[in-house]
Write a structure and sequence with these properties.
By secondary structure, this protein is α/β, with parallel strands linked by helices. It is built from eleven helices and 15 strands.
């Protein structure tokens, strides 16, 4: 039984990590939080876990609890410092996305963990969404012919900002949509179409300290084009997915209960989106996928002879995603297309 210490019990820790860890058969033995409401929730959700005030207290108990893994579901600006503490303690570590606030900090952490021989991975749970797995199957099937362009959107209507650290902190401390939603969207596009070579970005912060309205145009290795938008101030949220090809298009309206301005792009139960050819369209059967498989893969890796190679997400994937984000910020400042330079990657 894999024993886990969970740092943070807010939206990520309580809403995603704890239930997925439990569903995968791992045991949460400790939770780190100081918030009184979250302490009460931890007592309900993981009643046998010790509740501790900080990472130092968790690491002091780590040997007594025989921890196999520590999961960091803390604010993004704390990830690098806390992950280094975990690695120095010799314990495998899962870091919620983003791995760091910039690519250089991320690669330094990855190199440090590799030098210490401590397994490190990044929680890219959206790789396991039925939405992404269905999109992946459609693109691999050849049903769209030669692919021309992929568009991903994650837009919401929140004209009054949420009272959370993600909206209150500036980008250099982990706030803003680039480090939040774009870390999912860019990661998915890289998996589908390969590394990103150039990016052009238009960014705005209308209600938040960090970006709350964003657009990226990217070119991947080989020249493939992808566009990605994320916004908290979209009064008419667009379709989550639209892929154009020589034989038709794939479109998905909403996903996971989110409302969009394109409800007619939703499909019947048991389906996700449509393959569209002008006035004709066919619903696409959903690909079943279990997000808890991420933690099942982590547990299997920890039980293997080479835990790092078995991890479900290569942390250097996260370094590349952050390099795209860094280049996007430079593009917005300079109002021009920027090359993506991934630290630690040997150029061709």
């Amino acid at each position: 039984m894999t024993r886990v210490g969970l740092v943070g019990f807010g939206g990520a820790g309580a809403g995603f990590h704890a239930p997925l860890l439990q569903a995968a058969g791992l045991t949460v033995t400790s939770v780190v939080t100081r918030n009184p409401e979250r302490i009460e929730r931890a007592a309900r959700d993981v009643p046998n876990a010790h509740v501790l005030p900080d990472v130092d207290a968790l690491l002091r108990r780590a040997e007594a609890e025989a921890l196999d893994l520590i999961v960091l579901a803390s604010p993004s600006g704390l990830h690098v410092e806390q992950a280094r503490q975990v690695v120095e303690a010799g314990i495998a570590c899962v870091v919620d996305k983003p791995l760091a606030c910039d690519a250089h900090s991320a690669v330094e952490l990855v190199d440090f963990a590799a030098a210490e021989g401590i397994p490190l991975t990044v929680f890219q749970n959206r790789r396991y969404d039925p939405q992404f797995r269905t999109l992946e199957r459609v693109l691999r099937s050849g049903a769209l012919g030669e692919l021309h362009e992929t568009e991903l959107r994650w837009e919401r209507w929140r004209p009054v900002r949420n009272d959370r650290w993600r909206e209150q902190l500036p980008p250099e401390q982990g706030g803003g949509l680039l480090l939040d939603l774009h870390t999912h969207l860019i990661d998915q596009l890289v998996l589908l179409h390969g590394p990103v070579e150039t990016v052009y970005a238009e960014l705005a912060a209308w209600t938040s300290a960090g970006e709350d309205d964003t657009f990226l145009a990217m070119r991947h290795t080989g020249g493939y084009r992808s566009h990605v938008r994320a916004s908290s101030v979209a009064g008419a949220p667009g379709p989550r997915v639209r892929v154009q090809g020589s034989a038709g298009a794939y479109i998905l309206g909403s996903a996971q209960g989110e409302q969009t301005a394109f409800p007619d792009a939703d499909a019947p139960d048991g389906h996700l989106g449509w393959i569209v050819q002008g006035p004709q369209r066919q619903p696409v059967p959903v690909v079943d996928s279990d997000p808890a498989d991420f933690y099942r893969a982590v547990a299997a890796a920890l039980a293997s002879e080479d835990p790092q190679s078995g991890m479900p997400v290569d942390p250097r994937d996260a370094v590349h995603v952050l390099a795209v984000i860094d280049a996007a910020r430079a593009s917005n400042r300079g109002r021009r297309v920027m090359d993506v330079l991934t630290p630690g990657q040997v150029p061709d």
